[in-house]
């Protein structure tokens, strides 16, 4: 189950978060080639953050997937999610960082158990 977790210092009041969620969900599913029914997107706003010494709009994301990640796919995902955040939240692409966790290649017990527990329900 791919899960994209994004935190930003942008205040989400008055922002159409449903369009961010739906676009991000479709994008992750398409690029990873996984059914959208298994994709989870979490967006948290108003998180105290700085990047490069300033508190201008910025965002940090983590994408957890069981397989499907490789350098080429990661570049595509990073660019596509950055484009969504730039258009919807005015976060410049240069102020967005996305970290990838492949739970097959990097067996983190916590991630594997969390994903396994979510998959059971």
TrEMBL record:
<protein>
    <recommendedName>
        <fullName>Macrophage migration inhibitory factor</fullName>
    </recommendedName>
</protein>
<comment type="similarity">
    <text>Belongs to the MIF family.</text>
</comment>
<dbReference type="Pfam" id="PF01187">
    <property type="entry name" value="MIF"/>
</dbReference>
<dbReference type="GO" id="GO:0005615">
    <property type="term" value="C:extracellular space"/>
</dbReference>
<dbReference type="InterPro" id="IPR014347">
    <property type="entry name" value="Tautomerase/MIF_sf"/>
</dbReference>
<dbReference type="InterPro" id="IPR001398">
    <property type="entry name" value="Macrophage_inhib_fac"/>
</dbReference>
<dbReference type="GO" id="GO:0050178">
    <property type="term" value="F:phenylpyruvate tautomerase activity"/>
</dbReference>
């Amino acid at each position: 189950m791919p899960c994209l977790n994004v935190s930003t210092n942008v205040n989400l009041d008055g922002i159409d978060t449903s369009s961010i969620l739906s676009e991000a969900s479709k994008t992750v599913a398409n690029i990873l080639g996984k059914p959208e029914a298994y994709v989870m997107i979490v967006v948290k706003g108003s998180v105290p953050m700085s990047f490069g010494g300033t508190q201008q709009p910025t965002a940090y994301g983590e994408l957890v997937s069981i397989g499907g990640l490789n350098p080429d796919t990661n570049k595509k995902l990073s660019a596509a999610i950055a484009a969504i955040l730039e258009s919807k939240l005015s976060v410049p692409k240069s102020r967005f960082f996305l970290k990838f966790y492949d739970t097959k290649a990097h067996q983190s017990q916590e991630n594997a158990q969390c994903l396994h527990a979510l998959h059971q329900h």
